[in-house]
Amino acid sequence: MTEPATPILSLRGIGKSYGPVVAVREVDLDIHAGEVVAICGDNGAGKSSLIKVISGAEEPSSGTISMRGKPVAFASPHDALSHGVATIYQDLALAPRLSIYQNVFMGSELTRPVLLPFLRVLDKAKMIAESQRFLAQLSVAITDMTRPVERLSGGQRQAVAISRALRWNAEIIIMDEPTAALGVKETALVLDLIRKLKADGHTVLLISHNMRDVVALADRVVIMGAGRKFVDRPIDGLTADDLSHMIMSGNARAA
Ligand SMILES: Nc1ncnc2c1ncn2[C@@H]1O[C@H](COP(=O)(O)OP(=O)(O)OP(=O)(O)O)[C@@H](O)[C@H]1O
Q1: For 85-98, how does the pLDDT look when each residue is reduced to its tens digit (9 = 90+)?
Q2: Residue 195: helix, strand or coil by DSSP?
Q3: Which atom from ligand 1 is nearest to the alpha carbon of 41?
Q4: Alpha helix positions (H), the chain
Q5: Residue where a domain stops, chosen among 131, 151, 170
Q6: Model confidence, pTM
Q7: Ligand 1, closest atom to CA 21?
Q8: Is residue 38, in this structure, part of any structural domain at all?
Q9: Is residue 92 situated within a structural domain?
Q10: Can you tell me the ipTM of this complex?
Q11: Domain ABC transporter: where (predicted)?
């Protein structure tokens, strides 16, 4: 018998309180490399608070986080990013007037030397080529990397936000409600982006209220209610209705 692989990410006893408000209680969670895991639950269940702890945006009030069996503590989202954990929030945090390549490399621009070794200028050509490579990896057909992001569709903007995560070599990509603001066609594009990430070996943590998206994409579903994890199982055979019922039964228990 083969030993189960060490999880890429493990949470043990994670709690998060904001003053007297307990948002997350005693959550244990193991995420394996290459999985797509959906985190579901009603409003106020604690999904965002849990994600903020994993993404380095908030410190946990209790518990530990490990990556590949080694304890880690993320002091900031940048710190999490340098450990290979990237989070894409609903607003995508893109600069609409800047071009695709400027958004992909925002805060981590590539430079090249000119004349003297200590004199460097932005390496626009390389940033354009790399951005093109990331988007091609996601099967997104945009050729002009100088196009401002405000002229892209919602799905294409998600692709730019994901490309930024890829630029950091993120292994774990956390997506907060990626299809919430999108129409049918754009939603299909984003679901394809997530499938592509999985096919390329990335691990995806997905917060979603859309049970159809969850059934279509996730390998495993985690359902939270009143800060606790009360379901953690493979998606095998579950329907969107099953998931909705599970969420509601969790609410009834929490009430
Ligand atoms: N910064 C904060 N200060 C105080 N309370 C907070 C803060 N952030 C979240 N909470 C509370 O923590 C609880 C969990 O909220 P959280 O946003 O994590 O849930 P959620 O499942 O993501 O909900 P939603 O689906 O509505 O985003 C709620 O009672 C919420 O009011």
Answers
A1: 999 988 788 999 99
A2: helix
A3: 21
A4: 47-54, 77-82, 100-104, 124-137, 154-167, 184-199, 211-217, 240-254
A5: 170
A6: 0.92
A7: 5
A8: yes
A9: no
A10: 0.96
A11: 9-251
